[in-house]
Every structure is written in structure tokens, then in C-alpha cells.
Amino acid sequence: MLTASLTLDPAFTVGPVRPRTFGSFVEHLGRCVYTGIYDPEHPTADEDGFRQDVLDLVKEMGVTTVRYPGGNFVSNYQWQDGIGPVGDRPRRLDLAWHCTEPNLVGLNEFMRWCKKAGVEPMMAINLGTAGVREALDLLEYCNVPSGTYWSDLRRSHGVEEPYRIKLWCLGNEMDGPWQTGHKTAHEYGRLAAEAGRAMLQLDPSIELVACGSSGSGMPTFGAWENTVLTEAYDQVDMISAHAYYWPKDGDMDSFLASAVSMDRFIDDVVATADAVRAAEKKDKRIQVSFDEWNVWYLGLDETKNPEGDDWPVAPRLLEDIYNVADAVVVGNLLISLLRHTDRVYAASQAQLVNVIAPIFTEPHAEGGRAWRQTTFHPFALTAAHAKGDVLQVAVKAPTHETKEFGEVPLLDAVATHDATTGEVALFVVNRSLDADASLDVDLRGFGEGLGVVEALTLHSAEWTWKATAADATSVVPVANDSAQVSGGHLTVQLPPVSWTMIRLAA
Ligand code: AHR
Hints:
Blueprint: E1 2-7, E2 13-16, E3 24-25, H1 52-61, E4 65-68, E5 92-94, E6 99-101, H2 107-117, E7 120-124, H3 132-143, H4 149-156, E8 167-170, H5 185-202, E9 207-210, H6 223-232, E10 238-245, H7 252-256, H8 258-279, E11 287-295, H9 324-339, E12 344-349, E13 359-361, E14 370-372, H10 376-385, E15 389-391, E16 399-402, E17 406-409, E18 411-417, E19 424-430, E20 437-442, E21 451-458, E22 478-479, E23 484-486, E24 489-494, E25 498-505
Parallel strand pairs: 1-20, 3-4, 4-7, 7-8, 8-9, 9-10, 10-11, 11-12
Antiparallel strand pairs: 2-15, 5-6, 13-14, 15-18, 16-17, 18-19, 19-25, 20-24, 21-22, 21-25, 23-24
Helix pairs in contact: 3-4, 3-5, 5-6, 6-8, 8-9, 9-10
The structure holds alpha-L-arabinofuranose.
Alpha-L-arabinofuranose binds near residues 172 and 173.
């Protein structure tokens, strides 16, 4: 049995819980759009062809923002192909995923879907094969009320009011050699600054995210951020970070500690951004948009693109099926994002449906079911109950040695406090593969009277368990009856490979 402790005190906060931390991502990739969110022949499809069963799950998950339309896809995407009468739209080759894009869903369809899902769009522009001109045209189409070519074209497409989209990504992963139109840091930094400058001339109310590194393991990581921000500091508000985690060579101890890697990545991006701030004598601080993060079993056969003359429409790509350990890691990554709420201003789990996603669907022709993957649960519960301010949490826990990250604590946690309702939410993971843990939480800083409202643990004796269409509910978060408060202390037992949420209130 491991023993661990931490202290919660409402006086020591990191910053507010930011709704944009609970963002997601819809890319024209595999079956994320087609047969994911959109399947006009599905029994639940609405008048726009959107699956109501998926919309219901998206709402239940508490997703706040959705990044669109890519991802690697965006770097060869002509946004104009996706507007106007559907019958007139061209079919195009998608170079990123070696597919055919039918353009049945484009900007206006996506914006209608956002409205139905109650999410804020995070729009990415193409800075691979396109540039400043196309970005300005898109922004004019979206955000100018009327009286100009692109705004009137939008109105002629039946959208009278401008969308006034606030959040814009200046391209995607331009540091990656796989990216269509891949650039050096200097080339990209200049282009991001030029595009940003022009877009802000058109609409100064927008917020801009520059591409950071597509992983902390990239050879250019650090230098890339430095150069890009030196070029584009005045134009951008955030710099992106992307990271995917999986058990490399089956090393579960390191995999379960993936949040350590995310912590270090964020700290390094922040340090680099602040170093540019100092060198450039700037007042504003650049924040982090962690706009792609998840577990992704990179390297599996399913992740291979079609080849040769095979350019299919919406094939099965990146359809990872997640087990309980993956969900524990996802829960821990959310703990890391919340812990950095002072500098992480936005985040997007990649992706939302079917493609490395918490929601999985069958196409209408194959049964049409939709269900929650294991990773759905920690996201939905954290989004629902992390409210108010993030509290500073220092866990005292036993450590163990991992191959990838050295010595790491076996428990990790974050907590939030909503001063308006008095509610405290604690999110904690036990990363041990085999040991139960006993956690003691000192709550005396809250005075008398806090009690357990709800304690839920996601765990299975078989952490390899995965949800399927036939059985998506055998392993879900269940009540943890060990959680109790006495004498100003909460105590709770945490099984190995588990994620737990405990809500406390007077
Ligand atoms: O999310 C899948 C892909 O991962 C995205 O298209 C790309 O940006 C990243 O490499």
C-alpha cells in the first residue's frame, strides 16, 4: 500500500479554470467528419445531415471549443471549395492523408454544427500552400457584416450575420517535414507575422495562435519557438504545443507518467516565450495553446495512409480503441493542463470522433451505433466539475524510476475551488501498475464542514479493458465509498492504474 498526502487551501491559487481548456478538434481526416459528425442517412441525422446521437455525446462531454478543419489537412485546403451549393463543390486530393475530400461539409456546415453543439470555433488557416490573401478572404467572409465581395458572398449563401470568429490558428505544425508547405522557423515566423498583421488590420478583435513545435522531441524544439516569436511577437497571443503519448515498447510505467512529459513541455515553451519577451523588451506575455494532445498509438498499421492510386473518401484512419490505462493517462494530462492554467489559455484534445477520439461511431450502413470510449469519462467529468480557481497542489507521494522520465511520483493531482458555490473538486491518479494507494488530504484551510458530495473512480482489475459497441459500460467511473472526511481531513483509497474525482462541499 502506497501512502500519499496533499494540502488544499483556498488562499493558494494558480489561476482561473479556463473554459477553453476543454476544447477538442475536428479534422477532415478519416471518419471524423464523414460518418462521424456528419452522416445524412443516419437515423438520427438532422436536417443538415448531422448525427444527433453524436451531438448529444459532444454536449455530455462538455466540449467548449473545436479546432477545424485541420491538422495536416489544412495545409493544402482551399477553404473556398467548401462554400456555396454543395453540388458545385469540387472534389480535391487531400495530400496529408492521401484521401479524396468531397467537400460536402465546409465552413458554413461546420459553423451550423458548432451552433448546435454549443461550441466556439477555433479556425485554422492554410499557411502551407496558401498565404495572406486567402487568410484575409476567409476572415472577410466570416467576420465582416456586409457590403464587400466576401461578406456579401456569405450572405448570398444564406448567412446574414457575420460569424465574428475570435480564435484563429496561423497554420498547422509548420515545423514538421511532413507538412505540406513545411517551412523553416524564419520563413514561417515571417509569414505568421505578415498574415497576423493583415488579419488584425481587418479585425483587431481576433486572437491569434502561432504554430509552435509539433512535439517536444522535434530537433528544432525551442529554437523554433524562439525564432517564430521573435518574428511574430506583436501579432500573436498564443503559441501552440502538440503532443501525443503511447506506451513505447510496451513501457507502461513511463506511459502512465506521460503528464510529466506534458508538464516539462509546457514549462519549456513558457520559458522560451518569456525569454523572447525579455530579449525583445515586451510587456505582454505569450500564452500556450495546447491545441493537439491525446493518447495516440503512433506506428500501428491502422495509422498508415492509403497509397498509390488509392485516394478513398473517409477511410478508417487513426481509429485507436482505448483501454482503461489510456483513460487514466488522459485524465492525468487534463490534470497537467489545469495545473498550468496560469499559462495554458486554450487546449484541444485531438480529436473528437473516430480519429483518436473519445467518441466512436459506426457509419449508418454498419449499424449506426455511437458510444463513449474509456477516455470520454475523465474528460467529461473534469469539464463538468473543474470550476472556479485551480488550487496549488503539492502531492507528497512515493516515487519510482521510469525509463523515459527518471524518478516520478506515483500519484498526481490537481484541485479546483469554486468560491461562488464553495465546491472543491479533486482529480487524482494512481500511476502504479500494482499498488493500492491511501491518500490523505488536509482540508483545514477551508474551515469546518466540507463533506464528500461525490467520489468516482475509473479503474478495472483488467486495465486493458476497452469499450465496444456491444459493451461500452462494463467499466465506467463508479462510486468510491472509501472517500470520507473527518477532522478536517479527506481520506480515500485509490486502486492501481486509476483516475478519481472527488467533489466536496459544505
Ligand atoms: O491529429 C492528427 C494529426 O496529428 C494532425 O493532423 C496533425 O496536426 C498532427 O500531426
